Amino acid sequence: MSAELAAIPLTRIDGQPDTLANHAGNVLLVVNVASKCGLTPQYEALEALYEARRDAGFEVLGFPANDFGAQEPGTHEEIAAFCSLNYGVTFPLFAKADVTGPGKQPLYAALTQAQPAKTGPAAEFRERLKGYGMTPTEDPEVLWNFEKFVIARDGSVVARFAPAVTPDDPALTAVIEAELAKPA
Predict the structure, then answer these.
(1) 38 is in which domain, residue-wise?
(2) Which residue of 27, 32, 86, 169 is surrounded by the most CB atoms within 10 Å?
């Protein structure tokens, strides 16, 4: 893992400190999540993906953010309870923080710098948001909730997927499988 990425201080949703260095050697799927979004049902597929591949060295890391339409208004306790009760989430969740704009957390600044463009129907999604009267972000910013970054075992950011790309999408799972096939 790149020393810069690995050293970024993170905080778990329960307040415990963490860094990506603690997840080194695993393939990571970093996702900004929200509880009151049209894409929130992706939690179910994220958990299924995590459960199916965690023994192979795969982790989903969820980062709640309230950046888009105020769709993550809850406290850390409320978010954790919502995810557990409604979707059986067992993958790690982190403290709510910005993923876009001038106040974005350092992890997301590094991720968007490493992978400025996303794969998937970003333009179509952006137009749909405009149709709802919203002003979506432009690349390299995170477009919306449930955007996904894949970090390889070596710590490189190898892929980025638009929010509408579901966790079970063949393009996403192919990248994860290819990275899991590489030696730790």
Answers:
(1) 3-179
(2) 32
